[in-house]
Design goal:
Keywords: Coiled coil, Membrane, Transmembrane, Transmembrane helix. It comes from Meleagris gallopavo. This is Progesterone immunomodulatory binding factor 1. InterPro entries: PIBF1. The structure is a single chain. This protein has helices at about 1-85, 90-100, 105-120, 130-150. The chain has four helices and no strands. The longest helix has about 80 residues, at about 1-85.
């Protein structure tokens, strides 16, 4: 009977050792799988971080370019505003400019010709220009259009 109990306990010990070894092996497999998943997630996070950094650098570069372009456009708008302040046009000058294609005219010349054509100001032989009304009109137009735009 003791031998039977001894054999029975030895068998149970072997079974438990086998289960323990299986559990240890299963734990090692799960640990390896967890490590590999963690490594994959870390690699994905690194790739995502690198991509985000590149996108941010691209955005910052584009922003810098746009700010520079904006600065240049503001300077150009200021130059155009200054060139439109004191427009003077003689009758001969008006006729000469009116005969040229629009794409050959400077902005001040184009504006002068367009305004004279639109409002139909008459030439004043006393002044030798298109008249004080034109200068007053241009100054008023300038401040209405460009003064308002510059504040926005």
């Amino acid at each position: 009977m003791i031998d039977n109990l001894k054999v029975e306990y030895l068998t149970k010990i072997e079974e438990l050792e086998e289960k323990l070894n299986d559990a240890i092996h299963q734990k090692q497999l799960l640990s390896l799988r967890l490590d590999s998943q963690l490594a994959l997630q870390q690699e994905d996070a690194r790739k995502h971080q690198t991509l985000m950094k590149q996108e941010m650098e691209t955005i910052l570069l584009r922003q810098k370019q746009l700010e520079e372009t904006n600065h240049q456009l503001r300077e150009r708008a200021g130059d155009i505003r200054r060139s439109l302040r004191d427009l003077e046009l003689t009758e001969d000058g008006y006729e000469k400019l009116k005969s040229l294609p629009e794409d050959q005219l400077s902005i001040p010349e184009y504006v002068s010709v367009s305004i004279v054509s639109c409002i139909g100001l008459k030439y004043s032989p006393v002044e030798g220009q298109i008249g004080l009304e034109f200068t007053f009109f241009m100054t008023t137009l300038f401040f209405l259009c460009f003064g308002f735009v510059a504040k926005q």
